[in-house]
Amino acid sequence: MRLTHKLLLSVALAAVAAMASIPALAGAHKGGGHKSAKLVIKGGSSLKVNKYIKDSVHWVPGTVTISSGGTLTIVNKSPDPEPHTFSIVQKTQLPKSLSQIEECGVCGEIAKAHGVNPEEHTNAPPPIVTVDAKKDGFNEPGDSQFIGPHQTVKVTITAPAGTKLNFMCAVHPWMQGVVKVVK
After folding, report:
1. CATH H superfamily, domain 34-182
2. What is the pLDDT of residues 99-126, one digit of tens each?
3. Distance separating alpha carbons of residues 84 and 144, to the nearest angstrom
């Protein structure tokens, strides 16, 4: 009986010691757990003659959490040879219907900022690949990055902690998401 009591006491002390270290571990993770994040472009196009055309390109994940000053890696894994943009916009500028997608005003503004005529369709890189209005990283509507077919790019997210950045692809306006900026 005495041996069992000592064994239980040892297990209890080990559990208390392990629990005491949890806040320290959580604090260590909290300070540096989101220095980088990854955003992937997936999906593609399909066609059934006389039935439909489907374009399923999308962001994975739709919501990304990253520290202010962290690096966001954007990977274009879509099998289609089409370009994309990672463009920060105001929430009110995000199209929510098919007619808004077809008449996307902010998409034209983004194309012009990249030096592209929005009426011309091309897969070639635009004259201006990165639009960073204030040259201070990605932190506000108007900042935009071109992503070519099968390309990987990196951007630095510099918005302050607590900010939510709405983003979309100006080429495929239904591709929308949010960057949550943390400490």
Report:
1. Cupredoxins -  blue copper proteins (2.60.40.420)
2. 999 999 999 999 999 999 878 877 778 9
3. 10
